[in-house]
Amino acid sequence: MKTRTLLRFVLRFFLRFPLTLGLGLAVLMSTPARAADEPATERVQITDPYIELHTGPGRGYPVFFVAARQEWITIELRFTDWYKVRTEGGKLGWVHRRQLETTLTEAGGSKSFRDLALDDYLSRRVQLGAAIGRFEREPMLKFWTSYKLSDTLSLEGTIGQVQGTFSGTDFWHLNLISEPWSDRRLSPFFGIGVGKFKNIPNLSLVSATPTDANLSNVTIGARYYLSERFVLRADWSLYTAFVADQRSTEYRAITAGLSFFF
Known about the structure:
The protein has 2 domains: 2-31 and 125-261, Porin; 36-121, SH3 Domains (SH3 type barrels). It contains 4 helices and 15 strands. It has helices at residues 2-16, 18-30, 97-100, 114-122; strands spanning 42-45, 50-54, 63-68, 72-79, 82-87, 92-96, 104-105, 126-135, 138-148, 153-163, 167-178, 186-201, 211-227, 230-244, 247-261.
């Protein structure tokens, strides 16, 4: 039952917050398309039995040509993990990085693509993620998006829901995140933020009234770069809800999830 309630919350979020989604898309559209970096033109030789050329930079584009072993191809353009290559016969298509990792350079050495993938991680700007965990003793689900302001500072927005036994809680907050070692694969971080907290008791409770309060939080955690564009994340947070002028309530939460960066 709780799982279905959390799923309904996800649907309500996408229906009730079109402005949030619009702003998120605007940020993504305004972010420079650094993934389309153009490397210097370079010739490499195929060592696998063959490589497949697609009509576009994605697996959804059809394969229109197959280049065989020992053929030379020229790398002309890069878009995320896809490379635009030209064969000796003039065929122009897109090849995934994995099919190029065994190719040889004109000097006879192996062509390295690992540094390029690492560059993507180091120059990441926008992250989108989701996590599950516990808010005190209740199940919690949250989503976040962050924008990297500098090498060590990010602005992060989070929405979440806690589905308790006797009440449900919706919240959102904006955090300033400090990540001193953001260039490392395992990167600890900490942050502070403010937001809003709304607790809605079950209708079955007598004389129960919703609570709408300001919220502050501190969080500590760590990110671990998996591969490609995926990052694992775990964090612990202390939330303070200011339910009245002279009264506040503290909550502790721990979550783990996965994010995708641009």
